[in-house]
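Reopening this ticket.

The earlier resolution said the output was attached, but the attachment link was broken on my side. Pasting everything inline this time so it's all in one place.
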Amino acid sequence: MKKLNILKLIFVLILMLFPISCKNTQQLIINEDQPYGMSMVNSFERVFTSVQFDSICIADRLNKNLAKWHQFATRDGETNEVFVEYMYIKQLGQNEIIYRLLKTRDGKYKITKRITK
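Inline output:
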């Protein structure tokens, strides 16, 4: 009988802790430099040729030399292949503009432009 009471107690405790363990732990982080309600969105995300990349750099006044961009080496979790991701921060603060670039195997560039809205 004592074992049954202990099992009931354990079961009740598990039921009480279940909602706590399923609680969403994400927090809204508010940047003081950025007004509340603004968020970053992709302005574009596509694969471009090297000629198109040069045109983007001219139009958006970016440095074409990738050595001047921030570089991050990352390993693919499935293939263990190491690849380099480039990031160019054009502007921070209220009107943020950030570019992310990945070189593809065929010599093209996957470029993502993120802006605040």
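Reporter confirms the inline version is readable. The chain has a mean pLDDT of 78. The CA atoms of residues 34 and 94 lie 5 Å apart.
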